[in-house]
Amino acid sequence: MNDPFARLPEVPAFTVTSTSVKHGEVLPAAQMSGLFGVPGGQDASPQLSWSGAPEGTKSYAVTMYDPDAPTGSGFWHWAVAGIPATVTSLPEGAGDEAGSGLPESAYQLPTDAGAARFVGAAPPAGHGPHRYFITVHALDVEDIGVPPTATPAFLGFNFLGHILGRATLVATAETPAS
Question: What pTM value is reported for the model?
Fold first, then answer.
């Protein structure tokens, strides 16, 4: 089913929860994209809390990815790097244009929409349900060494030698055909 982690090395899982998004359920309007014209969409990054990361974790990265986007390469909605190991939660809306809810050392990378911020879901009308993988990646380095202008795919590539664990929740969204 086009699992974005299927061909990556297996790593221990830890726990991520959200007061905004529930695993296996439909994304709320707040996490849909007003920027892409979804009625009620607010482009608000979800609240996230995580625990149980592997020993040796020195930083985290957070991503949201839609493998079902009709692009041939999916669609990156959010990518944040540089979250210190002492931080284990982000408030809803942390991924606004200024990254106002992110820790000082954290930075957002440009999404596939070209914006260095959270861009909510906006599946094409009639395309069917899309899955949104919201993932916290535990890393063994404080600085992953990826510039803020890099793509989320490049960030993910650089996880290969540094990932200790991964915590994922998956939500869905669908836009009915007109």
Answer: 0.97
User: Chain centroid to CA 101: how far?
Assistant: 15
The percentage of the chain sitting over the pLDDT mark of 70, rounded to a whole number, equals 100
Q: What is the residue whose two structure tokens read 């596939």?
A: 112
What is the token pair recorded at 166? Answer: 């991964």
Identity of the residue numbered 147: P
Nearest to 69 by CA among 26, 124, 1: 124
CA 151 from chain centre, in angstroms, equals 13
One-letter amino acid of 134: I
Show the tokens assigned to 6.
């299927």
pLDDT surpassing 90 at residue 178: no
DSSP per-residue letters across 89-111: EE-TTTTSTT-TTS-TT-EEPP-
Encoded amino acid at 151, one letter: T
